[in-house]
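Hello,

Our lab assistant flagged a job as stuck in the queue for most of the afternoon. It eventually completed. Since we weren't sure the result was trustworthy after the delay, we are filing this so someone can double-check. Below is the sequence as submitted and the structure that was eventually returned. Let us know if re-running is recommended.
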Amino acid sequence: MNGSWTPPSGGNIPATTTTFIDNELFILSSNPDRVYYRIRAFDLEGLNSTYSSVVDIYYNSFPKITINPGKAITIPTSYFLMDNFPNPFNPSTTIRYGLPEDSNVSLVIYDLGGNVVRTLESGMNAPGWYEHEWNGLTIDGRTISTGIYFARIVAGDYSKTIKMLYMK
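-- returned structure --
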């Protein structure tokens, strides 16, 4: 994204509204998996706030995105685990997931034999999007071997596993 971003027209919502659901995403960058939002408040007398920081959202796999203008955060409408990126990876990869409600989350990396390699998350999380960068290290700090690994998330009644490839 460059500094010459201009918001699309017709994006105004009444000041009494505290959330906005965008069902028609505007693609504002050369990356087709991302959108950017900037939020500002205005009133009927023409007074405007300054724009918020840019909110950078990966949307390609998200069913719907909700933005809270006062907080400039996103809240998923369902549980979600994205594929890691990059994949294959070396030396590290990023794993992103979303929670629509307060949830007890377990995000664990396993090897092909089903052994725990590393726990990235264990505990309660508020609704929102999260990401963890895994540096390819085991619980005891050793670098993993080249091969296939699995990231498994369990949150509420949701569970999903993704396959990751580490290459030296």
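-- support follow-up --
The delay was a queue issue, not a problem with the job. The result is valid. Residues 23-32, 59-72 have pLDDT under 50 and may be disordered. The chain has two domains: 1-74, 80-166.
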